[in-house]
């Protein structure tokens, strides 16, 4: 997370969305459960301004949730409840983009900055019950980049980040958004995990091998084919396992699955669904390649009621700047339906 070291009566926080690209060992056959792969992207993002006020208040999207967060943080950390939070834009909820984590951390970071308590950001995440299965959202907020965490151990703490690799500047991600569907969350997500069939140890071993010997080297060497082939296989294995909780399909939105498959046919790499979806993704090696895919598929997307966005991987965390600064966050999103 970046910030400006100067006093201010109000702070603007912009937190990037994250893609959850798959698990490594869902059942924890070797003692650590889940193990997550993820990437911070520059759009969509949650943006808000936090300032002191006589009484807690919130405006914009997610008002009720923000008020609960203010009171939660005050009760544990003694920050005081006299804060106003204006949310100017928010990552779509229940879309597989980490909206809850980024909102919770953005509100917490602003309150901590005004209270001169920047050291407590991890506690903020714990209070908001972030990192219950994955550390990808917290890593996206703190550092950005492509991240793999080590899963949940016996301590119950948030998973440790094992690898953080910069995402190639030239590569692009095509996001496929379906605003008519929602992924599971909250209690429904807990029940869905509990109802999954056993995950074979041999498949967990295969996923770990793919991540260590294909996915990460492909990323480090900017080898899109190696990266994409490994990610597509990881997604196929994990998606197939989760299909029992998604009506028998690896895709929450069948339309997203169809469009992602078309992108693969036309040269995109690494297709899949982020978390429980419905957001899908595909990778290209350049802006020009992404733009060509967009132009080819835009009418198909419209016919399916879908939105396509071309975004970058984000190699830095959330931004935290005085609210009066006019230039605070650079987005590279070029096209949308």
Q: How would you concisely characterize the structure shown here?
A:
The chain is α+β, with helices and mostly antiparallel strands and 337 residues long.
Q: How would you describe what is shown here?
A:
This protein is an alpha+beta fold and 337 residues long. It has one domain (2-322): Ribosomal Protein S5, domain 2 (2-Layer Sandwich), CATH 3.30.230.10. It is built from 9 helices and 12 strands. The strands form 2 sheets. Strands 1, 2, 3, 4, 5, 6, 7 and 12 form an 8-stranded mixed sheet that branches. Helix 6 packs antiparallel against helix 7 (224-242). The longest helix has 20 residues, at 201-220. Mean pLDDT is 91; it is low at 326-337.
Question: Tags for this entry?
Answer:
337 residues; alpha+beta; Ribosomal Protein S5, domain 2; eight-stranded mixed β-sheet; four-stranded antiparallel β-sheet; 9 helices; 12 strands
Topology, pairings included?
Elements: E1 2-3, E2 10-25, E3 34-52, E4 57-59, H1 63-77, E5 83-89, H2 99-114, H3 121-127, H4 136-142, E6 146-149, E7 161-165, E8 172-177, H5 186-195, H6 201-220, H7 224-242, H8 254-265, E9 269-273, E10 280-284, H9 287-303, E11 307-311, E12 319-322
Parallel strand pairs: 1-12, 4-5
Antiparallel strand pairs: 2-3, 2-12, 3-5, 3-6, 6-7, 8-10, 8-11, 9-10
Helix pairs in contact: 1-2, 6-7
Largest sheet: 8 strands, mixed
Compute the CA-based radius of gyration: 19 Å
- The end-to-end span amounts to 30 Å
Shape: globular
Low-confidence stretches: 326-337
> How would you name the oligomeric state of the polypeptide chains in this document?
single chain
The arrangement of helices and strands along the chain is EEEEHEHHHEEEHHHHEEHEE
Write down the CATH topology.
Ribosomal Protein S5, domain 2
Class derived from helix and strand content: alpha+beta
What is the residue-averaged pLDDT? 91
Shape-level CATH architecture: 2-Layer Sandwich
Integer tally of domains: 1
- Taken as a percent bin, the fraction of beta residues is 15-25%
Q: In total, how many beta strands?
A: 12
Helix-residue proportion: 25-40%
């Amino acid at each position: 997370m970046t910030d400006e070291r100067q006093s201010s009566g109000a702070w603007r926080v912009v937190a990037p969305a994250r893609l959850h690209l798959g698990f490594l060992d869902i059942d924890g056959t070797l003692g650590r459960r889940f193990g997550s792969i993820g990437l911070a992207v520059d759009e969509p993002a949650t943006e808000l301004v936090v300032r002191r006020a006589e009484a807690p208040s919130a405006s914009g999207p997610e008002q009720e949730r923000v008020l609960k967060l203010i009171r939660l943080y005050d009760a544990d950390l003694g920050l005081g409840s006299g804060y106003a939070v204006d949310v100017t834009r928010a990552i779509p909820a229940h879309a597989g983009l980490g909206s809850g984590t980024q909102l919770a951390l953005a509100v917490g970071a602003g309150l901590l900055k005004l209270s001169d308590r920047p050291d407590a950001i991890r506690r903020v995440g714990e209070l908001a019950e972030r990192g219950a299965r994955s550390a990808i959202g917290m890593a996206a907020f703190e550092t950005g980049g492509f991240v793999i965490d080590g899963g949940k151990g016996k301590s119950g703490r948030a998973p440790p980040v094992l690898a953080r690799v910069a995402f190639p500047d030239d590569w692009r991600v095509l996001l496929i958004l379906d605003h008519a569907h929602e992924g599971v969350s909250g209690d429904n997500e807990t029940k869905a995990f509990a109802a999954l069939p056993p995950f074979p140890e041999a498949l967990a071993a295969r996923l770990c091998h793919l991540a260590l010997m294909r996915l990460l080297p492909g990323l480090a060497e900017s080898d899109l084919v190696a990266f994409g082939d490994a990610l597509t296989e990881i997604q196929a294995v994990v998606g197939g396992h989760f299909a029992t909780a998604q009506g028998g399909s690896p895709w929450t939105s069948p339309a997203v699955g169809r469009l992602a498959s078309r992108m693969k046919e036309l040269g995109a790499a690494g297709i899949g669904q982020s978390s429980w979806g419905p957001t899908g993704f595909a990778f290209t090696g350049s802006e020009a390649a992404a733009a060509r895919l967009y132009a080819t598929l835009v009418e198909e997307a419209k016919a399916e009621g879908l939105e396509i966005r071309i975004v970058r991987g984000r190699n830095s965390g959330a931004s935290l700047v005085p609210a009066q600064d006019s230039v605070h966050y650079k987005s590279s999103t070029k096209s949308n339906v």
